[in-house]
Amino acid sequence: MIPELTPLFEETHLMGTRLTNRLAVAPMTRVTATHEGVPTDKMSRYYSRFSKGGFGLIITEGSYIDHEFSQTYEYQPGLASDDQAKGWHAIVDAVHADGSKIIAQLLHAGALSQYNRFRNETVAPSPVQPKGEQMSFYRGNGPYRTPRSLKDEEIADIISHFAMSAARAVRVGGFDGVEIHGANGYLLDQFLTEYTNMRDDRWGGDIERRVSLSIEVAKAVRHELGDSVPVGIRISQGKVNDFVHKWSEAEAGAEVVFGRLAEAGLSYIHVTEFEAWCPAFGENSKSLVSLAREYAGKLTIIANGSLHDPIRAVNALRDGADIVALGRGALSNPDWPNRARTGESMMEFDRGLLAPIADIKNSEVAATHTQ
Q: How confident is the model at residue 369 (pLDDT cuts 50, 70, 90)?
């Protein structure tokens, strides 16, 4: 063990759930489920590489939550039915066999839906066409469609679907907890974002009202699962279709977002930025991780964003994180914790893993037994 890296390998707990270390796999969309959204054997082999490689926690790719508007990509897994949850159970069992814990991420696409086998339109807080173009490596093509505005009763249904999907993930799928996807430009982030939320009702206006849907979803999920299961939320400024977005309210906005989320019954906040250590709001400002630590009280903070260098990962803990989540670093090195522990060199990220489609490649699962 390299002494400087010792903090990464300390045991920790997430609402009573024991984690063998402070290293997590970040959620990464891999579009390898069946057309009906049922997880596959290839997905099981893919996820088990990370548990064999020493990660204490794995957070899954986003699963859609209903048979209405939440599906985001073709071949995306779901947690909208018991069949889908049962498919996930095999993956959960494989991860548990190696001593790791696994959390299901729950996702509603909103206006960023590129494919939906249930509906022919998209929905959002307001009828604002998303910036940019659909992502080709998730089988998208051309501009995003202009969504229609959600009605109050539909918003109530979405809150309920998050809660029901969370219950299905834990009680049928066997997951150790759930993460609500409130980041990266998807539906809950569309409500949080000033230029995509033009509403003048309880769900729109200042940042306190714009974050209120995330708050209500968190409360509903917590109520459904009780007090013994970890429930987290992922939060970002940047989006898959607007990489450089910043909250106009700056640190005052961060205080509202993290402070309100801390009161909603959550176990953790998963903060993601492109480079987690960078100032969140310009030169001399604190990082978003540090601000989350300051305003979220005793909640666990997970940091994600270009932390694949081991020293950067340790520094994220010093900046206020309790757990470090790796994306590209984990894809390149599914045994990253084992390599870091022994001082073995890391493999560089291979962009071919996400091209031409970001599905799981045969090469990623062929060597599972060697990890």
A: very low
pLDDT tens-digit readout, 140-168:
999 999 999 999 999 999 999 999 999 99
Q: pLDDT category, 370, cuts 50, 70, 90?
A: very low
Please say whether the dihedral angle defined by the alpha carbons of residues 145, 148, 154 and 158, taken in this order, is positive or negative: positive
Task: Domain ranges for the chain, please list them.
Answer: 3-370
What is the arithmetic mean of pLDDT over 100-111? 98
pTM above threshold 0.90: yes
Q: What's the pLDDT band for 367 if we cut at 50, 70, 90? A: low
Residue pair 8/343 in contact by the 8 Å Cβ criterion = no
Domain 3-370: homologous superfamily in CATH: Aldolase class I (3.20.20.70)
Closest CA relative to residue 40, chosen from 83, 2, 1, 5: 83
| CA distance linking residue 315 with residue 299, whole number of Å | 19
Catalytic residue among 46, 64, 75, 186: 186
> Could you confirm whether 75 is annotated as catalytic?
no
From the list 1, 49, 59, 19, the residue with the least C-alpha distance to 325 is 59
Q: What is the mean pLDDT of residues 233-237?
A: 98
